[in-house]
UniProtKB/TrEMBL annotation:
<dbReference type="InterPro" id="IPR011583">
    <property type="entry name" value="Chitinase_II/V-like_cat"/>
</dbReference>
<dbReference type="InterPro" id="IPR017853">
    <property type="entry name" value="GH"/>
</dbReference>
<dbReference type="InterPro" id="IPR001579">
    <property type="entry name" value="Glyco_hydro_18_chit_AS"/>
</dbReference>
<keyword id="KW-1015">Disulfide bond</keyword>
<comment type="similarity">
    <text>Belongs to the glycosyl hydrolase 18 family. Chitinase class II subfamily.</text>
</comment>
<dbReference type="Pfam" id="PF00704">
    <property type="entry name" value="Glyco_hydro_18"/>
</dbReference>
<feature type="region of interest" description="Disordered">
    <location>
        <begin position="280"/>
        <end position="300"/>
    </location>
</feature>
<dbReference type="InterPro" id="IPR029070">
    <property type="entry name" value="Chitinase_insertion_sf"/>
</dbReference>
<dbReference type="GO" id="GO:0006032">
    <property type="term" value="P:chitin catabolic process"/>
</dbReference>
<dbReference type="Pfam" id="PF01607">
    <property type="entry name" value="CBM_14"/>
</dbReference>
<dbReference type="GO" id="GO:0008061">
    <property type="term" value="F:chitin binding"/>
</dbReference>
<dbReference type="InterPro" id="IPR036508">
    <property type="entry name" value="Chitin-bd_dom_sf"/>
</dbReference>
<dbReference type="GO" id="GO:0005576">
    <property type="term" value="C:extracellular region"/>
</dbReference>
<feature type="domain" description="GH18">
    <location>
        <begin position="1"/>
        <end position="270"/>
    </location>
</feature>
<keyword id="KW-0326">Glycosidase</keyword>
<keyword id="KW-0147">Chitin-binding</keyword>
<dbReference type="InterPro" id="IPR001223">
    <property type="entry name" value="Glyco_hydro18_cat"/>
</dbReference>
Amino acid sequence: MRLGAAAPSIHVATTAFLQRIFINVHLCFVLNYATSPRLTQELREAFEAESKEKKLPRLLLTAAVSAGAETIRGGYDVPAVAAYVDFLNVMSYDFHGKWESMTGHNSPLYAQANETTWRKQLCMDFGVKTWERLGAPKEKIVVGTGTYGRTFTLANPKKNGMNAPSSGGGDAGQFTKEAGFLAYYEICDMLKKGAEYVWDDEQLVPYAYLGNQWVGFDDERSIRAKMNWIKTNGYAGAMVWTVDMDDFRGRCTTKTWPLIGAMAEELLGRPSRGPKNLLPIVKKPRTTGGKPATTTTAPNALKRADTLKPASSTLPVKDEAAEPDTNARVVCYYTNWSSKRKAKGHYEPEDIDPTLCTHVIYAFANIKEYKIVSTEPVDEGDGGAKKGFWERIVALKAKNPLLRVMLAVGGWMLGSAPFREVTENSYRQSLFVFNAIDFLREKGFDGLDVDWEFPRGADDKKRLAGLIKELKVAFDGEALASKKPRLLLSMAAPASFEAISAGYDVEELNKHVDMINMMTYDFHGDWERQVGHHSPLFPLYTASNFQKKLTVDYSAGEWVRKGASKEKLLVGIPTYGRTFTLGDNNLTDIGAPSTAGGKPGNYTGETGFLSFFEICDLLRSGATLVWDNEQMVPYAYKDDQWVGFDDQRSLKLKVQWLKQAGYGGVMVWSVDLDDFRGSCTGQSYPLLTAIKEELKGYKVANLEVASSNVFNSYGQLVDPDEVVCDEEDGHISYHLDKKDCTMYYMCEGKRRHHMPCPTNLVFNLNESVCDWPENVDDCKHVAKT
C-alpha cells in the first residue's frame, strides 16, 4: 500500500444528503480530483480491510467532483471514479462569479435560451447529467447546492439583469469578508435593506440588486425546485456547501436553517416548519418562455430502496432463434425514399427479410438544432394510426431477435454542413451527442451510423475524430448508467485513397467505432467520359498506377495500412450498377468512350444508374453479358447502353476474397435495390442470399464482443475471451484486454468496465497499472518509433 504518499488527508464530512441527512459528523475520505483508479482502489480496499480487522463499519469514500462539462470529459475517468466511491458530490455551483465581466448566477438549474452556446453548459442540469451520461450511476450522484451567493459590482446600476456588464466582484460581506461572495444570512440583510428581488423563470433561481451591488443566490423557492428536479431525475440526494453559511441563527426569519430545512422537507418528507416565503419580495415577470417557475407541493420523500435497488441478474427469456454459423456482419442499408418508387420498385420496411442481415441501417436522418430529425414525412408517421417507418423498421426485431437496427445520420445530400455545425464547439457537440442518445433510446434503435460525406482538411479530420470519440465515450457511459446494452457506433467511409488521407484520422477512429462501412463502389460513373466498372475487385493489368488504386482490394487495404482493424472493416457491396451511353456502339470494352450516363431505369428514374432488378430486365431484353476475368466482375451492353454491376458470381468471389483477407463482413447498399420480388430468377434477394451462403462457416478473428454478432441462447453477445466478473479475485480486480494493449477491464463486483490507459501507455497486469510499452513484453510493439 502507498496510502501515505498517495492519499489526501482525512477530512470531517459535514452535512450531506444521501437518502437521509447526515446531521452527525461522519469520517470519510474526500477526493477532490479522483482520476486515479489505482489510488481509489487502494483507498477502498484499505477501508474494507480495516473494517474487517477492527470489526467496525467501513469508512465512507466520496469524491468532490466538478460540474463543468469540459472538466468532466477531460479530467475524470468517470466509470472508474464511480466504481470505488460510495457517492459523488457534484459541485454544481460557481458556474459564474467575479472572474467574469458580466453578471451570472453561480448555480442556475437551467440555462437561459438567449445565452451563448458556451454559457448554456454552465448550469446544474447540464453538468450533473454529463456525469450520468458518461457512466456515473444515478444512485451515486449527489447534487451540490450552495448556501451562499456570488456577487458583482454593476458597471451601470440601471443595467441590472442577467449578463449585465460588471466591473468586478461585489463588496465584501460584513461577516464573511470576501469580495464577490455573500453568505445567505448576509443576503437576507441585503434584502431587508431594500434590495430588489427578481425570480428568473428560465433558470429557476433568484437574484437581487441594490444600487451597484448584484447577487445571484439560492433561496427556499429555488432549493425546493432543485430538490424536485433531483427526485424527478432519480439522483441520490443533495450536498450542501456549506452548513455554516445557511441562516443558522434565524436572522432572516423566525426559523433557523431555512435552506437545509427546505431540503429536509422536500427530500425526506419532514414536516413543514412554517411559511415558505417570509421575506418581502418584488417579482419581475419574465416573458422569455423558459422553464416553468411553478413548483408543486412536496411529493413523497426519496426512499433508499428507490435508488439503491440492485439490478436483476435474471436473464430475459427470448424466443429461440437459430444460432448463426458465422460471426461476420451483413449490414444492410435501407433507404427511406425507396417507398416513392412505383410498381415493382416500391419498397417499404416490411419488405426487408430480417433473416438475411445482421444489422439494418435506416438511411438517412438529418441534424437540426443539434438534434436528430427526419428527412422524409414517412419517417415519423402521422402520430396516430399511421405508423412511421422508424417504428416499422425497428419492429423487424420481433421477427429476428438477433437483428440490430441502427440509424444513419448525414448522407451525400446533406454533405458536411450539419456535422461542421455540431462540431463547432464542445457545447454543441455534447448537446448533439446527448440528444442523439435520448433519441435512439426513445425510438428503439440499437446504434448510430455517422455518414459525413466527406470531411476534408486538418480541421474536418480533427472534428470527425472528436465527434466519434465523444459518441463512443457517451455510449459507454450511458450503457453503464442505464444497464442497457451499449448503443453501437459505425461510420460510412470512403473508398478513395485520396479522401481517406484528406479527412480521416484512421488510427483514432478505429479505437472508437464498432464498424467501418467502406463504400467500395462508385469508383467510376457517368461523371467520366469512358465506361468503367464502379466496383471492380481487382484492376485491369493495363491500368495506370492511379487506376489500379480504384478497386475494392486496394481501398480495403488502404484502410488497413492507415491503421484500421480488419475485423472492423466491412466491404461495401452494391446492389445496383452504374450505366453509360456509348460513344460508339461497336466499342464496348472497359475504357470505351461514352457520351453521358445511361438512360434512367423504369423504377429508379435516375440517369447513369440501374437497380439490380432493372439490370435483370435489361439482360432479359437481349443485352450481352460479359465476364471480366481481370476485375472479377460482369458488365453488359445493348445498343448504346452499357452497365457495370455485381451478380451472384462476382459477389461469391468478393466474399471468398474478404474471408481470405480476414475482413469483418459486408455492407450492402442497398437492400431495396436487390431483386427483392424475385422477378429475375424466381428467388427473392438473390444477391443477399448469395452473400449469406458464401459466408457460412466463416469466423472473423479478433472480433470484440461489443461489435460481434455471436449470441448465446438468450440472444446476448458472447465471446470466448470475454472477461466475466465473478468476485473470485476480490470485489475490485483488473484484467487484460487481450485484443488491445491500451485498454483493460476493471471488475467491480459483478460489474465490468472497459477502461482506456492514458495516451502512449499500455496496461501492465503484473503491476495493475498503466505503464510504458517497453515494460510490458506483449505490448512493446505499441511503443512509438
